[in-house]
């Protein structure tokens, strides 16, 4: 069984982005870029499935600019066997990415696609569910445990108040939540090995996908800042302030 | 122009998030209909019909909807979609699971987590953990939207008298089945609807300490309990307590952060709270930059003292 894992190159989670002064977007020139953290969890899970003998091949995919090859090399250093870059300089919105992934699913016929639940740049939380819809396959989002046997995936999902467990027939789409696993550290020998692994490049047109954005960003602004508060000396002052000034208790 | 709100409900009633979503739907203009896709959910349908501003409730009843499986609910929504200009879901674990599936089936974009309706096709939404606010315009015929509940007031749960229709329910998908759920019993207010939230961070050090220190404070204030991503990651608190960019977005009247440093991703989830209190022994912790009242102290002493003083 092949496992396909889409990975996104995003602004590193530690970077506080700045809004451009002309309101056209955020300034991501010269900021640190990394693999989306939930996608790292997705790659880790796929590699573990391979180590357990459940998966035969792990294929990492990234859609975007040519620098996404760095993200794909990281995925291969974690343990993906090969990678596919679908290169486009255009803004790729979730529906377009889902259509690209659908085309790759048709080509590669994976038993599972594991994606991060959400990218930490646009915070959309859409692509996995959209891919499942386009392929008309079952989905398990926000996964905290995945078991695959006998053509089925049994997935425990994080829901409000606890968890629920679903059984999906393969091929299926899974999106990862925080507690699914803890991704391994990438070692230097594996980084070296990853440089030699196969990486194929396509364009969206090669795959017959129209990636024209459906949503137009009119402007981007800074959020309203909170006015600075005060430090209180002790618990008694805090309680007094909450009772008499803020009146919230 | 008519909007459809896909309700979050537990068959017995509707969740508070549905009320905020109805308000967003009203702001899109036109009539508002509410879909209750459930099983033996007449009580939820009746509750939806009583909400002010709702013109019609569509109550689709089938065992296929008993557990809210995305595949089955999507089929129901898609079968009705052509009658609507807007289809709105609360941006909760339930809504986020289904909305993109509906959008892709309709070949339209989905607009996530809107916090403001500017016009029927233009919306505000936070990006980059709320460090930027984007105004976006959709060119699609049907707008599929998830609504950040903290961005909209709750619609009045009484005052409406909508008609309830019962359409033929769509059949269930054969590719997915519900095995079981493990829901912890919880008498506390729901995190996203709570007036007061007490939240703990990694400084608590263990699950035992987290519960020992934080529970009495929550009990005293009748508060919901939250946690930072670091505390959830370390196993000190359950995942659904996570407040932040990738967890829950909350805006209570009072948010008390104990031993939380205030990473970008945490602030994204709570900085719209009315009053923020931070208790942290690190004077340089970024949480103090958003706190109305900061107390520089060891939480293991300060929190019990606070409990005693309340």
Give an overview of the whole structure.
- The complex is a heterodimer of chains A (249) and B (310).
- Chain A is 27% helix and 32% strand.
- With 249 residues, chain A is of the alpha/beta class.
- Chain A starts with a strand and ends in a 5-residue tail after the last helix.
- With 310 residues, chain B is of the alpha/beta class.
- Chain B has eight helices and 16 strands.
- Chain B has a seven-stranded parallel beta sheet, with helices on both faces. Chain B has a five-stranded parallel beta sheet with strand order 13-12-14-15-16.
- The longest helix of chain B is centred in the C-terminal third of the chain and has 15 residues, at 207-221.
- The radius of gyration of chain B is 20 Å and the shape is globular.
- The mean pLDDT of chain B is 96.
- Chains A and B meet through helix 3, helix 4, strand 9, strand 10 and strand 11 of A and helix 3, helix 4, strand 5, strand 7 and strand 8 of B.
- Strand 14 (215-221) of chain A pairs antiparallel with strand 8 (132-138) of chain B, so a sheet runs across the interface.
Keywords for this entry:
heterodimer, A: about 250 residues, alpha/beta, two-stranded antiparallel sheet, 6 helices, 15 strands, globular, B: about 300 residues, 7-stranded parallel beta sheet, 5-stranded parallel beta sheet, about 25% helix
